[in-house]
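This is your field. Pick holes in the following sequence-structure pair:
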Amino acid sequence: MPTKKKNSAFMQPVNISDDLKAVVGPGPLPRTEIIKKLWAYIKKNNCQDVNNKRFIIPDEKLAKVFGGKTPIDMFQMTKKVSKHIK
């Protein structure tokens, strides 16, 4: 049997800001889980642009994490979220 690989840095639980906790729940959480929960929140609360699903339209809670109500591209999301990870 192959030996088990060490968990990558993305799998290590990290502390998160209060604004991010309001969206994904209490931490610490691995980065992968944070992104998974963010997407669940975005889909549950209809925060995707209907015409272009790559764009996220922040509601009140997401605006605190993303730094405003301006729609952002999903590829910019991780950069915005990283400011809320300690």
